[in-house]
Amino acid sequence: MIAELFIIFIGVVLVNNFVLARFLGLCPYIGVSRDLKSALGMGLAVVFVMTMASAVTWVIYYYLLAPTPHNVWFLLWGDGVDPSAFDFSYLRTIAFILVIAALVQLVEMVITKTSPALYRALGIYLPLITTNCAVLGVTVLNIDIFFKAGEPLAGSFIKCLVQGFGAGIGFTLALVLMASIRERLDLADIPPALKGAPIAFIIAALMSMAFLGFTGLI
Amino acid sequence: MIRQFTKGIFQRNPVFVLLLGLCPTLAVSTSVGNAIGMGAAATFVLVFSNLIVSLLRKLVPNKIRIPCYIVVIATFVTLVELVLEAYLPDLNASLGLFVPLIVVNCIILGRAEAFASRNAPLVSVVDGLGMGVGFTLALTVLGTIREISGSNTLLGLELIPNFSPAMIMILPPGAFLTIGLLLGLFALLRSRREKGGVSPAGEGS
Amino acid sequence: MKEGTILKLGLTLTAICLAAAAALAVSYRMTKPTIDARARADKLEALRVVLPAAAKFSDRQSGPEIDYYEGRDGSGNLVGYAFPGEAKGYSSTISVMVGVDPEGTITGIKILEQKETPGLGTQAVDVPASRTFWEALLGRGEKGPAGRPPFQEQFAGKTASQLQVVRGKSEDKIEALTGATITSRAVTDAVKESLQTFLKQQKRI
User: Fold this and answer.
1) C 82-121 residues with CB below 8 A of A?
2) Checking DSSP bridges between strand C106-113 and strand C165-166, what pairing results, if any?
3) Reduced to 3 states, what is the DSSP secondary structure of residue B57?
4) C interface test, pick of A17, A64, A90 with most C CB neighbours within 10 Å
5) How close is the nearest chain A Cα to the Cα of C143, in Å?
6) What is the distance between the alpha carbons of residues C36 and C17, in angstroms, rounded to a whole number?
7) Within a domain: residue A205?
8) Does B85 touch chain A (CB under 8 A)?
9) C140 — contact with chain B (CB < 8 Å)?
10) What does the pLDDT read at residue B203?
11) Cα–Cα–Cα angle for C95, C97, C101, nearest 5°?
12) For residue A10, is it within any domain?
């Protein structure tokens, strides 16, 4: 089990890095990678929200959407009918994005009340996270990978958590690497036309090539 | 009205100028077919969400407008998911994860917030159509370049017999490289046209 | 904030969510029959491909180790079995349907689901076009019937001991796809494992 979780973690951080191999979360990757400090802040906020979202969406899918005997609607009203009549999995996208939006809002409120220092560090990045496709992406992937026909595979909850956490770490890793390179790049002599976003993408290409080297790892 | 349409295609192209909707642009542009399919799906969502948001703009209180827009967008995305699953399963399989992720495509929420919530329905629809076509065009350009150089085919048909293509172009690095060079090219053209000082390409979130 | 405003905000959001859910429920009911029918047709198609000699297939039989289907020809003789298998590929779980004759020789396989790297792993399901882009453009060359993916065709006629992936040409083993050794190995493993499980189960019965 531990080995399995470790493989999931390595897989999602290095081999199938969300940014460099799956193209998720590119907008903040290019937009918030100009200095190291904000990259780190954004990264931590994403790790936090992704892990929470993975847990919450697992519960929502398991109890409310999946066509299984665990479905709460089935338990309440499903007398003598097949659980597949309670298949609400088509509402997955809309339910998950609302959960993420609410979660981000909640996290923002809690942080404001409890830790002003943390709020100063993460606060401005939180609203951006709702539309970060990496967050919705990891929750949808969790369901795709760790559920089969609505039934969770063995240990799927903890696997979802690890995958959510790992995806956030992978995103942070890519973001921090990029920010460090771009800080140096400000001093470099590059063709004027390539300044800004174009050179950032070309660097991303090189980083992505480097990450392809992790392929054989798992 | 016509300018409203063309602005989304050229001078305010969502991908090449505003740098929005990058994730699907890079992820599904491995072939022209995928690129067009993705573009069409996003355009559909963009047009209808713009229409509904514009119709609702006086009814929705300011404080909760973003969640409302997200619900509207997610509804149309789910509709697209269902239709693709029922009638175009092959396209659905090759776009995969990026069909539900149309919800968080920044172009769509961006247009709802910046345009449709302030304008009449008809103009909003035209704006959505223009932006959608601009998005599709950008995807197709990228898809064409990557399919030709990476798999030596166009629309799945072989171009040069017995030629081994540069496989890296259909892998993630090829996507980053292509968009980087294209953006650089556009920045170069723009600075040439302006003749004045060189302006770096704009950055967005 | 006054209580009245909160109430109004909540009610508006609830109304929009309810409208969205209702619209989706209706479209789900409308598309579900098509989606289900397609799933059934796909399954039958897969069985036909992997057991070409069979004219009729039994329902899914549950075995102690692995579920299977029985295929019979026009006069009711048993011509083989089909059963599913799966293995972890490069970026997804690959699931296959395998057909064998009563002696345990593979009659065919079909990849049911995969989300491998476009252009590399997906070669496993690619069918090369029978004409080039230029021929199609000029209207020359035959379009030809859609064939079967050559990678999957290799499995027909092989036995469990021959299921080994090799690079380069081979007469009696499985040739790996260029640049997609992991995918090639995963498909082979999926076939081999399910075949061995099935044969062991047959021996016990």
Assistant:
1) 90-91, 93
2) unpaired
3) coil
4) A90
5) 35
6) 27
7) yes
8) no
9) no
10) 41
11) 150
12) no
Residue type, C99: G
Distance from C-alpha of B87 to C-alpha of B79, rounded to nearest angstrom: 12
Q: Does C14 touch chain A (CB under 8 A)?
A: no
Under 8 Å CB pairs connecting chains B and C tally to: 84
> Is B78 close to C17, i.e. CB distance below 8 A?
no
The domain total for chain A is 1
Question: Which element (helix H / strand E) includes B162?
Answer: none
Rg of chain C in Å (alpha carbons): 23
Alpha-carbon distance of A80 to A78, in angstroms, equals: 6
User: Nearest residue of C to residue A17 by CA position?
Assistant: C91
Residue A26 CA from chain centroid, whole number: 12
A98-155 tens-digit pLDDT: 999 888 888 888 888 887 877 877 767 777 788 788 999 999 999 988 888 778 888 8
Shortest Cα distance, chain A CAs vs residue B119, angstroms? 23
Residue of A nearest to C90 (CA): A215
Are the Cβ atoms of B89 and C38 closer than 8 angstroms?
yes
Alpha-carbon gap: B83 to the closest alpha carbon of chain A (Å): 12
Share of chain C above pLDDT 90, in %: 27
The whole-number pLDDT of residue B201 equals: 46
Q: Which residues of B101-195 form beta strands (DSSP E)? A: 153-154, 157-158
Q: A43, A175 in Cβ contact below 8 A?
A: yes
Which pLDDT belongs to residue C142? 67
Query: Residues C110, C96: contact at Cβ < 8 Å?
Result: yes
Per-residue pLDDT band for C59 (boundaries 50, 70, 90) equals confident
CA torsion through residues A160, A164, A169, A173, sign? positive
- What pLDDT, in 10s, does the model give residues B140-186? 999 999 989 988 888 878 888 777 788 888 888 999 999 999 999 98
Q: What is the DSSP letter of C60?
A: P
Does A25 reach chain B within 8 Å, measured CB to CB? yes
Binary contact (A94, C20; C-beta < 8 A):
yes
**Extended strands (E) in C128-186:** 165-166, 174-175
C-beta of residue B168 within 8 angstroms of C-beta of residue B201 = no
The pLDDT of residue C144 is 61
- pLDDT tier at B37, thresholds 50, 70, 90: very high
8 Å CB contact of B171 and C117: yes
Name the residue facing B19 among A30, A209, A212 (closest C-beta): A30
Q: For residue B194, count CB atoms less than 10 angstroms from its CB and return exposed for 0-12, middle for 13-18, buried for 19 or more.
A: exposed
Q: A170, exposed or middle or buried, with CB in 10 Å at 0-12, 13-18, 19+? A: buried
Element holding C86 (H helix, E strand): strand C78-88
Interface of A with C (CB under 8 A): 16, 90-91, 94, 98, 145, 215
* Helices B65-87/A92-114 angle, 10° precision: 150
